[in-house]
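Handout, section 4.2: multi-component inputs.
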Amino acid sequence: MTEKDTEQKILDAAQDIFVRKGLDGTRMHEIAEQAGINKALLHYYFRTKEKLFLKVFSLAFPKILPRTMEIFDSDMPFLEKMEHFIDRYISLIGSNQALPLFVISELAKNPDKIVGIMKEAHRNMEFDLIERIKQDVAEEIRQGRIIDIDHRQLFVNVLSLCVFPFIGRPVITYMGFDNDRKEYEKFLKTRKKQVYEFVVRSITP
Amino acid sequence: MTEKDTEQKILDAAQDIFVRKGLDGTRMHEIAEQAGINKALLHYYFRTKEKLFLKVFSLAFPKILPRTMEIFDSDMPFLEKMEHFIDRYISLIGSNQALPLFVISELAKNPDKIVGIMKEAHRNMEFDLIERIKQDVAEEIRQGRIIDIDHRQLFVNVLSLCVFPFIGRPVITYMGFDNDRKEYEKFLKTRKKQVYEFVVRSITP
DNA sequence: GTCTATAATGTGATAGAC
DNA sequence: GTCTATCACATTATAGAC
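Output:
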């Protein structure tokens, strides 16, 4: 067993448990058990629970949204960017369904602890996302290809339509699907197409 | 100090802390302190932390979504219902900004503990929400007033557009607002109008 | 109903052998 | 690097006086 292997096994177990149970709900011995090692070894590698958590968070956060946003940094036509973004974003969320809620709720509970990670993630973006979207939207409006709309409202609308069906799943299934999970799975499968069409209908003249 | 007063003080403190810190992040002594009473008294009134939590959850959950949904159980024109729903829903969320994330994340972490409360809330609804929306949408489509759209997709879209800007706030402010909170406050103030117009543009022929 | 004191257990973290 | 044993403290919950 090399050092790299053990560290990776810890991080895998830690991510799985932190994401499901949150910082406060996670026990160090549970991570150790799932990683197949001793509890003391966690501290040998990561010193404290908080440091381990921050490491996990910093690795987990960039897995979805930042990676998807790169799509806007290309010269595709705007609506094509939108289509690619929705497709890729929903795919990534679908493969990591618990991640968005984890990121949001831990960030809400511990903004101070995590602010450093967010700042770094923001610095690491190789272009100014919101400025680029602003320019794109302005140009589309000027060309008459989309209606006059605030670029940030559009941005938040698209995010909301993509991610909330996954985050709000437990409530939605009760309120709108009689807690029928199979039915909700089918529903989620059609989201990419539905979201894209919903957005396009709303912004094309 | 009457019994009612003490119980209410406990519930007020418990809701405030549980909503901000979650079940796992909350300490009983913190609730006692904030309620201005002794720790043992919490157990006298609610026996265990879990029972207190479930009481708080069952009181908090109906405060927003179920209360707003009643709007669909009226004979207003459909688009007017929609406008009222968006207006009222966003108002309630704005007055209880941490509640939706609390409900969703606790439900995700402890579905088994809370399932009873959800079932009861569902039973207590005095009409079949999703069936009513289905009928309304079908009739609107038949009359040619809105385009052909799946009623549940529309339902989830509206929910998403209303609630996600509040839930996802910490992430959105970083990704799209350079962490400028004042700017985001202004943004939220315009949501009612923006969401309604976005939805209407998308569903009217 | 309300308090103080304390029990019973859980949890993060470290010491020290190998 | 990895383990066992253990410390130091926090936390839920209860006992019992008032």
